[in-house]
Specification:
The chain has 174 residues and is mainly α. Helices cover 78% and strands 0% of the residues. It has helices spanning 3-23, 29-53, 59-82, 88-110, 119-135, 141-165. It is globular.
Length: 174
């Protein structure tokens, strides 16, 4: 078990801690949750950097790293949905995009093809993380809505780009 994979497992372990902090109401609980969310998000940056720079990329990491990211982000969005700070339809858009992209990747792998993440997916991830961090703070409702819109628009754009650029994966399958 190398360091990047340990960081990925740490991020997975931090997610229930984050959720508990979001759901248990005590003074400063959202700021405590924000601290855990930021630390968990930083493990994502760190594990990827270490894995690439030290050539420690593993099949386990290829599978678990994106899964850990999705679990953390979707858990955060569901907590915000439960708190009334994010509409359910926005969470559903994000989950749908993740299933669609993951499904297409599985089809591509079966055809011996690996589809790398595009720039719009990286922008979506960065924008989502920044917006989710902001949403932990006592921001005005219009800024909260701006965050929801940014998350939704970048999610839809990156998902559409991904599916359109790689639609040839389905040739002969439909």
């Amino acid at each position: 078990m190398n360091l990047p994979n340990r960081l990925t497992l740490l991020r997975m372990a931090m997610t229930p801690v984050y959720v508990a902090l979001m759901l248990i109401d005590f003074p400063g609980h959202t700021l405590a949750a924000l601290a855990v969310f930021i630390l968990a998000s930083l493990t994502d940056l760190l594990d990827g950097h270490i894995a690439r720079s030290r050539n420690l990329i593993t099949d386990f990491g290829k599978f678990m790293d994106p899964l850990a990211d999705k679990v953390l982000v979707v858990s955060s969005m569901i907590c915000f949905c439960a708190a009334g700070a994010m509409p359910a339809w926005a969470v559903i858009v994000v989950i749908f995009r993740e299933f669609a992209v993951s499904g297409m990747r599985l089809v591509a792998v079966e055809k011996g093809r690996v589809i790398a993440a595009g720039w719009s997916g990286k922008v979506k991830t960065a924008a989502t993380m920044v917006c989710l961090c902001l949403m932990h703070l006592p921001i005005p409702a219009p800024l909260n809505w701006a965050c929801v819109i940014i998350i939704t628009v970048t999610t839809l754009y990156s998902g559409a780009e991904y599916l359109i650029k790689n639609r040839d994966v389905f040739k002969g399958s439909i």
